[in-house]
Amino acid sequence: DAGVIQSPRHEVTEMGQEVTLRCKPISGHDYLFWYRQTMMRGLELLIYFNNNVPIDDSGMPEDRFSAKMPNASFSTLKIQPSEPRDSAVYFCASSPIDPTAYYEQYFGPGTRLTVT
Amino acid sequence: GQQLNQSPQSMFIQEGEDVSMNCTSSSIFNTWLWYKQEPGEGPVLLIALYKAGELTSNGRLTAQFGITRKDSFLNISASIPSDVGIYFCAGDGETSGSRLTFGEGTQLTVNP
Fold it and tell me: Using CA atoms, how far apart are residues A86 and A65, in angstroms rounded to an integer?
């Protein structure tokens, strides 16, 4: 079975440019999570969706960050304009609706973003 | 917010040795999970625990959900070089909704 798919795997961009990260969750999973990982702050939850609806976006750093989930098989995380401090690895994860496995999040390979 | 204290931060062991790491919290957690992350990859779920006192194994890995619901440990028996990576604990607290709180990770190095 295909796991969570993220693209691109690596992104290098200049400060001020728009960046779009993409995620395809595991088929049948109803929850989708976006995380950011840095050495200083570890894994931080940015936002999560349930059935394509954003539930908690309190982790989104600021208005420059936005996330959408137009359908059950696709989500985007956009940064506009990007800044050097946004450099990090961004992970997408999904989990099933099954209450016995509700918290078992499955992570994608991540997108390593470098903003120069 | 809720925090998890994971220890040790790093471990350097010889192949064949057993490994133990733990995670503690000041508040009660309903679920504990253990993940492993290798360089350039996302965290991979190893074990999920849902009941206080629960002891679950996955191959050479064994994890337990503490009776107080404020801690969990992960043991790796007879370590091998491919066990190298960062091990994270994660938990769902009583007030966290669907959010997981992650520990800071234990970096494991296994010398052949």
Answer: 10
Beta strands in A1-116 (DSSP E): 5-7, 10-13, 19-24, 31-38, 42-50, 53-56, 65-71, 74-79, 88-95, 106-107, 111-115
Closest partner residue to B99 among A45, A50, A109, by Cβ? A45
- Res B1 pLDDT > 60: no
Q: Which of A34, A91, A102, A103 to mutate to test the interface with B (most CBs of B within 10 A)?
A: A103
* Residue range B51-75, pLDDT digits in tens: 999 999 999 999 999 999 999 999 9
Rounded to 5 degrees, φ, ψ at A84 are: -55, -35
Amino acid identity of residue B95, one-letter, is T
Taking a C-beta distance cutoff of 8 angstroms, is the pair A37, A89 a contact? yes
